[in-house]
Design brief:
By secondary structure, this protein is mainly α. The chain has nine helices and no strands.
Amino acid sequence: MEICLGEPEAPMPPRGTENELLEGYRAGDLDAFERLYEMHAPRMKSIAWNLLGNAGDAEDAVQEAFLKIYRGAKTFRAGAAFSTWTYRILVNTCYDALRRRKSRPVASSLDADLAAGRGTPAAPPGADHPLRLALEKAVARLHPRHRAVFLLFAVEGLTHGEIGRILGIPEGTSKTFLFEAKKKLQRWLKPQVSGERVAAS
């Protein structure tokens, strides 16, 4: 089963360019920070949409994360990649949004989108296929950490090393979370897949 959720992944930016822009911003060049935003925003929106399941919430999370990044960029220590630090802030911002959502007695944004028949913002033709919708709902049921590892690996194409640095967990834990997430998704989706096969025969 091919997994394709959210927007197509954006390529990781070249380190040198990223560092040069960061140094430019630290020297007072606000245009450099604007270019950093343009460089990372597409991938950040994809990650946030996949974690939150709602385009509006994803936009809010990216804006909130970049405000935090803007405030902290001048004190960022270059021991790690700027992109890793950026995505860690975004993921934590998404976790905060999910916690706030849980405290509200309303249906989840993903459920509301699915009930309205909306797919992802940049979804390809056939995105409303029942199996795809079932997959999106199943991914939304995962524990936030398992969901983050699954999406960062399977959708965004990051390595377990990168995921570990972003989430602040050992690489082995990332692999374990991915294994557990896949097992749960296979179990939850088994009836749907079986139904698809019966319908096709």
